Amino acid sequence: MDQAADDFYAQGPVFDDFARLTEPVLYRPLPNDWLVGLSDVVSSTAAIAGGQYRSVNMAGAALIAALSNGLGQRDFPFAFGGDGASFAVPATDAEIARAALASTAAWVRDELGLKLRVALVPMAAIHEAGLDVRVARYAPSPHVTYAMFTGGGLAWAGSQTKAGAYAVEPAPPGTRPDLTGLACRWQEFTARHGVMLSLIAVPTAAAGDAAFDSLVGEVLQMVGRGERGREPDRRSLARLGLAGARARHRGTGEPGARRFARPAQTVAGSPRAGGPCRHEPRHLDRRLSVAAPSTRRHRQCGLPQI
Questions:
Q1: Which domains does the chain have, with CATH numbers?
Q2: Burial class (CB within 10 angstroms; exposed 0-12, middle 13-18, buried 19+) of 172
């Protein structure tokens, strides 16, 4: 692994104030020889309407776990979008990324009964389209960072993926990615003031960066810091931990196997390398309350996206 490429993301700018999200100085353009990987669950809307929302989430998050394990837990920029994921890696990691994409697509097909469309797009192609991918690191706590992308290139790569360009074929039946550490945990939250609003803003082709940045800034000012970091009660954590264990062990078993850990070892736990989950409710409380769903050894579904 080229050290300069390995350090590109790890040594990038870090900001901890979400209000600075639109500041251009915080973002660095990905090098021309990097690649962007993407996954997308085909017909995810219909699958969710049919009650398969957990499987859809698992399919999206599985790619990040597979690549993380393939890279030996090195930091890399990624984003989880609920029904898919995207990431960026240097050219030296191209084969690892391709293998993660192919094996994850095969596992989603064989185990979850869904079709996962996957692709690996060269940054050179994004630049040729007149677009860019710039990345920054947002740290809501000292223990976790999220990759933030801008530049329009990721959206373009997503449209190319849906069109079938730069496709990576799924691996043969029975191929399994290394999903060690993957746990998808779900919990329904009720609105505190009667309404729960999700706001998605996407710039049009005619809108410039300045106009979009201004809009985002106005929204952030209206919302303020608000009530981010809502802390769940412990009874909810118990249900959350057990459901996550079921999903996690489905992902790490042999083909067709369904292995479950004992409930006492899975409730409100955090998986350790080489061992079962431990009962650490205070630790889990803290991680959930600061919306920190990923650590070196643990990937959870439901990563917040901007």
A1: 3-179 (3.30.70), 209-300 (no CATH)
A2: exposed
